[in-house]
Amino acid sequence: MSHFQPADSQWESRVRASFERIGIMKTLGARLGALEPGKAEILLDFHEGLSQQRGYFHAGVTSTIADSAGGLAAYSLFPADRAVLSVEFKVNMLNPADGACLRAVGEVLKLGRTLSVCEIQVYSQRQDEERLCAKMQQTLFQVAAVS
Amino acid sequence: MSHFQPADSQWESRVRASFERIGIMKTLGARLGALEPGKAEILLDFHEGLSQQRGYFHAGVTSTIADSAGGLAAYSLFPADRAVLSVEFKVNMLNPADGACLRAVGEVLKLGRTLSVCEIQVYSQRQDEERLCAKMQQTLFQVAAVS
Amino acid sequence: MSHFQPADSQWESRVRASFERIGIMKTLGARLGALEPGKAEILLDFHEGLSQQRGYFHAGVTSTIADSAGGLAAYSLFPADRAVLSVEFKVNMLNPADGACLRAVGEVLKLGRTLSVCEIQVYSQRQDEERLCAKMQQTLFQVAAVS
Amino acid sequence: MSHFQPADSQWESRVRASFERIGIMKTLGARLGALEPGKAEILLDFHEGLSQQRGYFHAGVTSTIADSAGGLAAYSLFPADRAVLSVEFKVNMLNPADGACLRAVGEVLKLGRTLSVCEIQVYSQRQDEERLCAKMQQTLFQVAAVS
Lengths: 147, 147, 147, 147
Fold this sequence. Notes:
homotetramer; alpha+beta; Thiol Ester Dehydrase, Chain A; 3 helices; 6 strands; 43% strand
C-alpha cells in the first residue's frame, strides 16, 4: 500500500474524471486500472493500429500510457484545484513490447509543491506471464486547474 | 543539407515503405514529410483524439512521432538488410503543443555500427507561426532485418 | 538479496580491482561499499571541494558516483573478459544533496548481451537519517576488455 | 551570436563570481571559457585523476562540467536576485572522451519564469582536432538567491 495521504478526499473520482478527458486514451483503447493515492495503472490491449514495424507495441504508445499513468499518480495527491503537466520524461525499452496487453504502473517518487517526480514500470502480458518491458522516469509540474 | 552518405542507394523508398508499416502512424493520422539521408520529418494535424486533458497534443503523441522521426532518420543511413529499434529516449516539453499541426524533425547526431544517437525537434504550427514545443534525445539499435 | 547469478566466480575481486582503476574516485575521495551480484554501493563524504554554489554536493558529483555504482553493478555480472562503458544516463535531483555523506546504490534492471540497464538511487545521510536525493536510469554497453 | 537579452547588465561578472563558488570546479581543474548571454563554456584539461577505467575522462566528469555549463548559461539570463538549481539532466556519450582537453558549451533552449531547458555539447580536443563526445539535455529551476 502507498504511504501517501491524498490532499483531497475526492481524489479517486477526480482521477477517473481526468482520465476520461484524455482524448488519446480513447483513440488507443486504453483503460484505467487500479488506483491508490500516489499510484495509477493503465491497461492497453494490443491491436495492429498500435504497432511499430515489427508488429509490437510502438515505443511511443508504451510511453503514452506510461506518461499518463505517472501524471495521474501525481494528480491523485494534488489539491482539488490543481492540474498536472508533463515537464519531461525518459524511457528505456528493456524487452520487446510483444504481448497481448500492456500494463503501466505509475508511482510518485517525490511529491513537491511545484515539481514532482514519478517512475513508471510498463509490463507486457502474455498468457499467464508478465515481463517488465519499459521503465520511465518523469518530471511533472503542478499548475492551477483551468475552470 | 545533410552531410551523411546513405549506405543504400534505395534509402528513400526503403524509408517510405518502413513508415507505411508503422500501424500507430495511421491510427494517429501522421504523414511522412521531407526526407534526406540522416534526416526525416513527420507531420500530424490536431484532432480531439490526440489530446491530453487541456485539449493540446498529448506528450505521448508528440513523443510517438518524434521517436519515429528519429528512428527513420537513422534507418535512412543503414544498409538495406538492417532494421532499427528504439533503445531509449528522453523528451522535454518546452512550450504547450497547442497548434493545428505538429512537425517532428529527426536528425542523426552519431551513426554507429551498433548504436546511433538522434535528436528530434518538434514544432507546433499555428497559422503562419512555428514554435519549438519539444526536444528529444534518442538512442537506437541497429539489428538484422526480419525477412 | 540479488537474484542474479554472476558469470564469473571471481566477480567480487574483479569489481574491487575495477574500482581501484577509476582515477576520479580517488580525486573525489569515494570508497566502495557493499557488493552483491548485480548490485554495487559507493560512499562519499562531503568536503568543500565537492560542492556547487550553495555548498551542497554538486549534481555532477552525485552523478559521477551514481554512474560508477551502476557500471560496477552491471560489470559484476559480466564474464571475466568483458568491460563496461556508459552509453547514456538520466538523473533527477529529488532533494538537496546536503548531508555529510552520499550513498549511491546501483542495481541491474536488465542484463543483456550487448546492452544492460541499471537504476541507481543516491541517498544523502545526515546523523541518523537517510533521504533519497537522486535517482538515475542508465544504459551500459558490454565490450571486450583491453588486456 | 546569442539572441537573448540579459535581464541584468552585470550578468557577466555575476556568472564569473558564480563559477568561482563551485568547489568541484577547482577540484577538477576546470576553467571558465567564453561567455555570452544564454551561453557558457567550461574547459578541462585531462589528468589521471579525472579518468575512468580505460584512462579516458569519466562520464561523470564530462557530465559535471556539462551540468555547470548549462546552469551558468541559464543563470546569465536571470535577474540579479535569482539562483539556479539543476532539476534533472540526461547525457549521451557519443564518442570516447579521450582527448587532451574537454570543452563543454551550454546554451539555453527555453528560458522560463520557473523552469528553463538547456542543451550542452561537450567536445574532446586533441591536437588540432575537435570531436563531439557528449550531448546533454537539462532542466533547471530558478529560485531566490540566498543572501
